[in-house]
Amino acid sequence: MAVDVRRVVEIWNPVGKCSGTGYLVADDIVLTALHNVLGCGVLEVRGLGSDSKWLAAEVLWPLTEPSDLEREPQADGALVRITDAGWLPPAGAAPVRWGRIDGGPVVADEGRLACVAVGFPRSEVRDGIRDTKEIRGHIERLTGLKSSGLITAYVDQVAVPGVWAGASGAALFARGRLIGVVTTDRRRDYDGDQLTAVSVVGLAARPGFVAAVGELVPEDVTAADREEPPRTTTAYDVEVLPGVNNLPELPSPIFVGRAEVMAELERALSAESQTITQTVHGLGGVGKTTLALHYAHNHGKAYRLVWWIRSDTPELIEGGFAALTIRLQGGAVSGLTTTQAAEWAVGWLQTHPGWLLVFDNAEKPEQVHAWTGQLRAAGRHLITSRYQRGWVGAPIALPVLDDEASLDLLSRLVGDGEEEDEARALADDLGHLPLALEQAGAFIGQRGITAAEYRAHLRRYPERATDTAPGGSDPARTVARIWRITLDALQEQDARAVDILRIAAWYAPTGIPRDLFAPLAEDPMDLAQLLGLLADYNMITLDRAEFGVHRLVQTVARTPAVGDPHRDGGSIRTARDLAVELMLAELPPSPALNVAGWPTWRALLPHVEALLDVSDPAEDSAEMLLMLKQAGGFLKQQGPLSQTIHYFGRSLAAAIRLFGEDHPDTLTSQGSLAVAYQEAGDLGRAIPLLERTLETRVRKLGEEHPDTLTSKNNLASAYQEAGDLGRAILLYEGTLEGRVRELGEDHPLTLVLRGNLAGAYAVAGDVGKALPLFEQNLEGHVRVMGDDHPHTLVSRGNLAYAYMAAGDLSRAIPLMERVMADCLRVLGKDHPDTLASQNNLANAYQTVGALGNAIPLFERTLEARLGMGVGQDHSDVLVLRGNLGMAYKEAGDLGRAIPLMEQTLSSCLRVLGERHRNTLILRGNLAAAYMSAGDTVRGIETFGQALAECSRVLGDNHELTESMRRQLSIACKAQA
Q1: pLDDT exceeds 70 at position 507
Q2: Could you give all domains of the chain from N- to C-terminal order, each with its CATH number?
Q3: pTM
């Protein structure tokens, strides 16, 4: 569809005594320039017909005018509603198609995008010349869209050259799409050849525009299509009606003392800018969330969509975006990971402007800015946080309530029967903190006591409050002063509610699963009543599946107070122990390999981390020790290794304190810590720990005990990684003999060790010994465990890899292809063994030069590993990125290879360190890539660094050191 002249209307402003142009974008809504209607409440419009009459109209949007259009020219757009009862819209008119240009290269003839507008270039007075003409021009490539959201169009042809007045407000079209509103308005003849227009995408990003105009999905007009192409559907073509939101209910309809700060917030979020990011900061409990909720509820109609995102942690933020995808797509997102669903939501928001996002209770600015930075030109962001610094723009500070507002709040909560002096004194005692006032009001109202009696309770227990502040001067402490009184009331009604609150104090403050507390209740209905009781006293914020506890309440609950039965040392320790017990009951077993349990682990990990963070390591119990081991096991698979090492180190310290240095649990923790050090490339710490563990187990258990044999196997693996194949193989051989004697030829542990020994032979280049062992091992796995057992699949993959190492690719590749297919069928596409089999097959394809097969497989494997939420710095991801970079290099795609290798090497140096084998290999590969690119100076320099590190870490005679030495020699000869 091109310009429909039946939609072109003339606008008369009786206040400004000026005329302009408009365009019907809906049956009774006209788009025009804002300066045409400034200062005018009632307007007149008329269509093109010779018998057209002036009809009454009014400004629909914006409701408030900008202070300075010269300073904010991108705000020069308005919507006018025709209100005259005699108005009839054009019959059979097709809907308006909206368009956008992105500022990038315009793909059209000779780099230009043709455009057209229809206006009244001679109409300067109410009944002036009605000389409606087309103004044709073009938009240049790269310069058509300014960063401010304005479009510059160059006029090629106009019927009445040099006369412009009356043309402002005309709709600017390109390729049949309405892309802007002409704002150039000249009161005299003008020789210039440029028109300025406001982008409709820029207008759509302003509050209220989309809600007023209805559905608005801009199409890209800079694509390489031709005249009137059929519209293609994209993944983001999901439209919502204005008013869609996920806003929680207001915690209380009573909202006092915030008129001034609410007005400041309204001014900030309605400013004439395409994007506004406004932060509200203040003390915990001061009412930031309540303020944001009232704003969002009161102004929801001004936005296409309002979405509430709890932002205490990065995981909650990502989950909030993922929840938006679920709302928009419904069941279509069942196959997406949380990360993928969140990314889809960002893409939808980028292409559907005019929304409001609320990031509530954000902990760190950088965690929010990682999302808002992607959405800079599409909507509004409102952030609440306890923190003042580090935010974009000037944050709004939210203070405690003043005296009158506090009194007003209390009187509304408890009724009008209170004496003003006592209520005012109580507000002073509570430090005018809204949270404290609401808790006190709920208690007074439900218990039917007076404010004076409540104050008497406070006076009775002053010494029992946490860090009691004189005169209630510190709001954080005055919250603690009402703790005992509120809990006494809860205790009378149901002591289990108090238990739940004390236990929840050890978890993360938000997103606590309700089902976690099911063992404390008789049934789901009973649990709902207990949680509802806590919510009645404003002690928790309740949702359908989870609840939250304010941080100050949690701090008080965990703080001992002499004489307070709710917070004596014994009850606090009991609550912590129950928190550990309930959490252990929910955590899936075998966290390192139990892929099905990973979503549950990810949901509960913030609470595990919070519990461990606020617990004194010196008081770690046997149950805490088990939690540390499980958390370390999960993080070892997911990353980061630094936190894995921290948890395993803490578990070792706890085991030594609880059981002594020679206890089996101590040795298990010691071995786990050593293996984590090994995965992090810190063999200097790993090997001594493994040697000490083995020495103790030999002494306590004997040479043939299964735990001793496990220690021998782990130590042999570390020797092998350190390049000490002589000691590794001897240890593997001795351990295998012991396992055969102790457990038999076909015991699973025997099979594992036989595979490890075969792998060591292969690394040492002794394929003659390696292949028979791999084949024997596979036969044993098939015989004992079956053809589809996961261990059998690993064994078959190891044999295939050995064939490749032996140069027998004719047997290696078909076997690898079978292993990958079996892993996909048996384990699923996201299992670590499946991804390992894909990586191995990609390596084999790369070896035979089939890069067309190898590169997509590397890319798919890397994408899947990242989709599991492990992060860019996980050791497996670093290996995959290095492999992909090398494949790009061999394919001659150095433009992708070198940046990827450089980024990966930087990550390896930061995460694994200079001594890690993967770091050493990647440095050599990067040097080779530099040489391929003809950069011999950097190539030789990088090879030299790689050789020096290999020699220092692995020794002069290690195979990797010798390889680096050969490649450096070749590079030097190439330079000469």
Answers
A1: yes
A2: 5-220 (2.40.10.120), 244-397 (3.40.50.300), 403-481 (1.10.8), 587-680 (1.25.40), 875-976 (1.25.40.10)
A3: 0.51
